[in-house]
Amino acid sequence: MRQINLAVLGMVDGNGHPYSWSAIFNGYEPNVMEQCPYPGIPRYLEKEPKEQLQLHGARITHIWTDRLEEARHVAQASLIPHVVNRPEDVIGQVDGVLITTDIGSEHVERCRPFIEAGVPVFVDKPLTDNESDLMQFSRWVRDGAKLMSSSCMRYCKEFMPYRASIHDLGELRFSTVTTFKSWERYGIHALESIYPILGPGFISAQNSGNKERNVVLFKHRVHGDVVVAAMDDMHGAFGQLQLCGTKGSASAVLQDTFYSFKAQLQAFVGYLQTGERPFPFSETEELMRMLIAGIRSREENGRVVLLEEIATE
């Protein structure tokens, strides 16, 4: 297969994906990457053997970010040959685009030019954080748009054994998963950690927390109660999973962020190469309903919100 050319588009405070994702495709210049404003990125990149760092079959050839000077620095750090003045300038130049921002309320307008031009799009998590935009994304996909969005936690290798089977645990009664930062931007990391294990069938959400301390109880049709917590300063609890059943229990912790990112990006490249989605878009729709239900419950003083209240059409 020929090389797939991609563009990285957008950069918001608190999200260094343009640096790290581009490096996974292109490699990087260590001395420039060391000046990246996210010190954790050069640290986990340098742990990877050079022969295992890069994802093969695709390359980042173009970049645009909200501030031009940032795009120029990312391009130097991650060996991107073309910096463009407008995101639309990449249309006709690339085979797909990566929207590397994590503010869900912005994603419809960031994606619109490319979806309307027929360019395949990968959107960083969360796809959206509100019902009206979810309806728009769902319409686009029903109309044939090549659109994919996920958290890297869907690909967390430490959780893979439980995606394969939870038979030894008996019937699940209670599960928990935690993250730091806000529910709006990071709640999806926790949700998509556990969703591939339990599968579809979430019924309702009840958020007993507040803007800084979200504690959300979900009811699952088969697997009982699931508590998902997202707290601004809970840095010591990112990617902590616990599963409790009638015969046993299990826990796991994210250890290898690089692996999760690379597997996530490989899934999008595979989608472009084969035309086959790595997972149904209906799963993304249900996950967005869960995220939105958590927000709605919090804003309505902890009301139990049924996921069926949140429309996709």
Q: What would you say this structure looks like, in words?
A:
With 313 residues, the chain is of the alpha/beta class. It has two domains: 4-152 and 259-278, 3-Layer(aba) Sandwich (Rossmann fold); 154-255 and 288-309, Dihydrodipicolinate Reductase, domain 2 (2-Layer Sandwich), CATH 3.30.360.10. Helix content is 37%, strand content 23%. It is built from eleven helices and 13 strands. It has helices at residues 17-26, 30-33, 40-46, 50-53, 68-77, 107-116, 131-142, 160-164, 183-198, 257-274, 281-299, and strands at residues 4-9, 58-64, 82-83, 96-99, 121-124, 147-150, 172-180, 202-207, 213-220, 224-231, 240-245, 249-253, 305-306. The strands form two sheets. Strands 12-11-7-10-9-8-13 form a seven-stranded mixed β-sheet, covered by helices on one side. Strands 3-2-1-4-5-6 form a six-stranded parallel β-sheet, sandwiched between helices. A hairpin with a 5-residue loop joins strand 8 and strand 9. Helix 7 (131-142) packs antiparallel against helix 11 and helix 9 (183-198) packs across helix 11. The longest helix has 19 residues, at 281-299. It is globular and about 55 Å long.
